[in-house]
Write a structure and sequence with these properties.
mainly alpha; Four Helix Bundle (Hemerythrin (Met), subunit A); 6 helices; 2 strands; about 60% helix
Length: about 170
């Protein structure tokens, strides 16, 4: 399996897992989404916004290295970000943005040449390859989906968004 094929599998898995997480969150009220659950990002909504913000951050860095990438033309990549300020104001706008960000990750992973995959970018004050940045965005989302699942478990809300798409591997 090539690096590009592996990246595509991970990107699709990430999108399916995010979509399945959103399907669970869609069933909760705004009050349930916004309630402080004592996590670092406070609420389920805070975690969800952070997941999208992480993908946005990494994709903006990748766009700097691949400015001509067709996969990175979605207007959501123009969203202003400031440290400590959520990039998205509410669940609906975040859900729409995360779907577009996931599509961009899939598009980049499927169009990436070996040379582009190794291109170096600046992320968090250090250099890393485009491929590592894609992997970082996906692993970051998976980590925080785990936090979302733990909170949902504590609430007694059934959730099974981790195994989405695994059979396709």
């Amino acid at each position: 399996m090539s690096t590009k094929q592996f990246a595509s599998i991970l990107a699709h898995y990430n999108h399916e897992a995010n979509a399945n997480m959103a399907a669970v969150l869609d069933k909760l009220s705004e009050a349930e989404l916004s309630k402080d659950r004592k996590s670092y990002y406070k609420s389920l909504l805070g975690l969800y916004i952070h997941i999208a913000g992480g993908e946005l951050f990494m994709l903006k860095n990748i766009k700097a290295a691949l400015p001509d990438s067709a996969a990175l033309r979605d207007p959501v990549l123009k969203t202003e970000t400031k440290p400590g300020v959520p990039a998205f104001a509410d669940y609906a706008s975040c859900k729409k943005a995360l779907d577009a960000l996931d599509a961009a990750i899939i598009g980049v992973s499927e169009a990436l040449s070996d040379e582009e995959a190794q291109a170096m970018i600046e992320a968090h004050g250090r250099k890393q390859s485009v491929m590592k940045s894609l992997a970082s965005a996906i692993v970051h989302a998976a980590h925080h989906r785990g936090e979302v699942a733990q909170i949902l478990d504590e609430m007694g809300v059934e959730n099974d968004f981790f195994m989405a798409g695994v059979s396709g591997c």
